[in-house]
Design goal:
heterodimer; A: 113 residues; mainly beta; 4-stranded antiparallel sheet; 12 strands; 0% helix; 53% strand; B: 114 residues; 7-stranded mixed sheet; globular
């Protein structure tokens, strides 16, 4: 079985400040981890993924995420938030033996001007 | 290079009617996944299809829901005798092969049952 937890329903941050959106996971075997972003009334857009290799993964729009195996976490980060980053963010995980990812409930990021 | 297309974008049905949701995958993609997003919830997997085959339907409700992906044409998610609880956003995603790492999502169909 595989599962994802996004412990925060909402994250508020001021523009220009660093942001973190948290994600922890549970999976059998090696995890494949993903972050997606959803803007209002739109589909999900892929941001970044961790499959193997360097624990720090860089993605689109200046986002990055750090894979921490001991803490089973894959937190999304950005050094300086923009108002346009305000959206719904989803973490997803799947095992190497599954083609179907499990998504978290999503975290609403609100960046204040 | 067109992305994943879904139509209609918005669909209103009365209770008891049928809803048909269409998904055209990205060019070159032969694997399609359907998800449902309910208010205040994440995406829930429904079904995974390849051309002419259902690979995994473990997330599909046992009754009233069916899906197909014919050799020609879009994938169809069909909901018979809709009920108010079927109101949700339905998203389709595609990938070029089953072990591809990320999926590409369409804009979704928002179904409202009155």
């Amino acid at each position: 079985a595989q599962s994802v937890a996004q412990p925060e329903d909402q994250v508020n941050v001021a523009e220009g400040n660093p942001l973190t959106v948290k994600c922890t996971y549970s999976v059998s075997g090696n995890p494949y981890l993903f972050w997606y972003v959803q803007y209002p009334n739109r589909g999900l857009q892929f941001l970044l993924k961790y499959i193997t290799g360097d624990n720090l993964v860089k993605g689109s729009y200046g986002f990055e995420a750090e894979f921490n195996k001991s803490q089973t976490s894959f937190h999304l980060k950005k050094p300086s938030a923009l108002v346009s980053d305000s959206a719904l963010y989803f973490c997803a995980v799947r095992s190497g033996g599954s083609y179907i990812p499990t998504f978290g409930r999503g975290t609403s990021l609100i960046v204040h001007p | 290079n067109a992305g994943v297309m879904q139509n209609p974008r918005h669909l209103v049905r009365r209770r008891g009617q049928e809803a048909r949701l269409r998904c055209s995958p990205m060019k070159g993609h032969s694997h399609v996944y359907w998800y449902r997003q309910l208010p205040e919830e994440g995406l829930k997997f429904m079904v995974y299809l390849q051309k002419e085959n259902i690979i995994d339907e473990s997330g599909m409700p046992k009754e009233r829901f069916s899906a197909e992906f014919p050799k020609e044409g879009p994938s169809i998610l069909r909901i018979q005798q809709v009920v108010r609880g079927d109101s949700a956003a339905y998203f389709c995603a595609s990938s070029p092969k089953p072990d591809s790492y990320e999926q590409y999502f369409g804009p979704g169909t928002r179904l409202t049952v009155t």
